[in-house]
Amino acid sequence: MTVKISPCAYSKVVLHSFRYPHCPVRGVLIAKKGDGNQIHIVDAIPVSHDVAALSAPIEIALVHIDEFCAQKKLIVAGVYFANEALCDTGIDPFSTKIAEKILAQNTNTVILQLDNTKLGVDSSSAGCNVFAHDNNKFWKSKKFHIENEEATLQVVSEAIQSKIYRTLADFETHLDSPTADFLNPAISSFIEECL
Prior knowledge:
The protein contains six helices and eight strands; from the N terminus they run E-H-E-E-H-E-H-E-E-E-E-H-H-H. The protein is α/β, with parallel strands linked by helices. A hairpin with a 5-residue loop joins strand 2 (25-32) and strand 3.
């Protein structure tokens, strides 16, 4: 299986973690429908930034995200997360549970883990790890590549420096303020324009 991550998806994942540096963040990865051996992640939808992993908001978010994917002919491809503590490199058990729910619908489900130690304003390499489910019911590290990686890292750096992450809304924010668009079209447009 090969995993390809779009600049938009990678940027949103990193910006979500910068928006809430004091919290664990979680979100959903969206992919194009494709063949069984390739996953092309085209977007990331921020879901939560709460220390307490609550399943009800996640379930509601997944219903909304499924509807969005059906309209756009996309699929839910997995989850992403960033741990709360800088030194925590473990796979988040709550994110794993969400991924296993998605796995029931999509056998090519992935988990993207942000590596907090590699994130910064001027990152020179991708600050994440990708895991896929194997036949033994374990999450194994997978190779991946970010499209146009050098330019993507530059755009993320620009977005961080210009503090665009302050405008990012996740689904949890949307529940508090329904006008907050958790799809973050303005950030998607910013990324596309910068590239």
